[in-house]
Amino acid sequence: MNEQADVVVLGLGHTGGYIMRALSEAGLDVVGIGPRPVVGERGHSGDIDDAMTPGAGYLLSASRPAAPFPLGAGWAAGRSRTVEGVRGRATGDRVDRIAAGLLAVKRGRFVHGKGRLTGPYQVSVGERTLHARRGVVLATGAQPRLPAVRGLSGTPYWTDENALAAMELPASLIVLGTSGLGVETAQLFARFRCAVTVVERQPRLLSWEEPEASTLTERALLRDGVTVLTSTGASEVAYDGTGFTVHLDGGTEPLRAERMLVTTERQADLTGLGLDTAGLAASSAVVPTDGQMRAGRGLWAVGDVTGRGLSSDVALYQAEVAVRDILGWPGPDTDYRKLARLVYTDPEIAAVGLTERQARNQRLRVRTSLLPINSSDRRGPQGRRRDGFVKLVEDADRGVLVGATSAGPAGAEVLYALNVAVHAEMSVERLRHAVPACVPFHRTVEAALGGLC
């Protein structure tokens, strides 16, 4: 069966859904192809970030559930679902309706299955062949890359999707590896009185961020009852039908928990996508793109398949550039040097640009300023503690900010102004004379700028 469309999107994750929404709202006929639509990804869907903010006070209140309980369609805000997660088997038009609802796509068509390129502007899925008038977007995402731990691959470990779609809260959980998602999940499960243990090979949590951010995050997890084991690796994992046993390096006492979440690196699986039919190497580990996310004639690629960052923040940024290019709108090429990094714990960790260590490794003459948020003994919105800090990294020779970290109850919001300053390479002198919003967190930024001297 041959069909026509303006654009075909391969992949129904958050990024594919965003592209479908944007293009269909611009009036294009868009078809999305994938085995299942998945929402609830960290950082954009609202599950983890909304759950950790004051608006979801039931997670942050002092009265927490005392025992495991059914969580409905997902453990966070009840929005992490797949087509298979809806009661009954959905087929045909009902798949379209469910997928449209989950991805918030008002206009667009969906094809359930695994699609592959079969030529320029052409995708096949099952017995159907779709011809894209404008082109095809590859947004097929990535899968976890398991660490080399004996016995792990044969166990029913959780990935981020499993954790978000869990129907019941486990009594105990081991988190192996501490990506941003791993730390967020550990804290959120702990706030539902799940006994959580974090196992991290690196000497500190969030090892890619400033050490002050690692210390703040670990202190917050400990306060919520999480056991944190850094400089610790797992050597073997076993599952007996009721729980996991994790043997640690060094022969220390094994850990035992009902569930285990693996939050290590992810990698794209490009096998079977038919890349060779579009002029690309079939054995490629990633899809190379130019600054407008073009991978070839009538072909764009976004997200994990590009090998750039492997995060939802980067994927959404790429998707915005690709949508603009597909619509023929002018705009700058992608620039990955100054992307913001967000971890939605409580307190939030938000950063942009270089850390102090990275700046020094680049042989910059560095000035830094570190200032705690006003009086951590006081309480912020909804009674939350005002734990946090602002750290600025300046290239002293040029007098401009090259990096910033905003950690606290409103870390991501406070970062916005710093993000603009780093991207625009605004002078520190000019920033000092800007008038900040009259709120304590922004006043902390003003004071931190004064400390760069």
UniProtKB/TrEMBL annotation:
Q: Which domain of life is it from?
A: Bacteria
Give residue ranges for domain Pyridine nucleotide-disulphide oxidoreductase dimerisation. 340-438
Q: InterPro entries, per this entry?
A: FAD/NAD-bd_sf, FAD/NAD-binding_dom, FAD/NAD-linked_Rdtase_dimer_sf, Pyr_nucl-diS_OxRdtase_dimer
- UniProt keyword annotations, A-Z: FAD, Flavoprotein
Record's Pfam families? Pyr_redox_2, Pyr_redox_dim
FAD/NAD(P)-binding domain ranges (all copies): 6-318
Q: Does the keyword Flavoprotein apply?
A: yes
Task: Answer yes or no on keyword Flavoprotein.
Answer: yes
Cofactor(s) annotated in UniProt: FAD
Q: Entry's Gene3D superfamilies?
A: 3.30.390.30, FAD/NAD(P)-binding domain (3.50.50.60)
Name the UniProt record assigns to this protein: NAD(P)/FAD-dependent oxidoreductase
Native organism = Streptomyces tanashiensis
Which lineage ranks, top first, belong to the organism behind this chain? Bacteria, Bacillati, Actinomycetota, Actinomycetes, Kitasatosporales
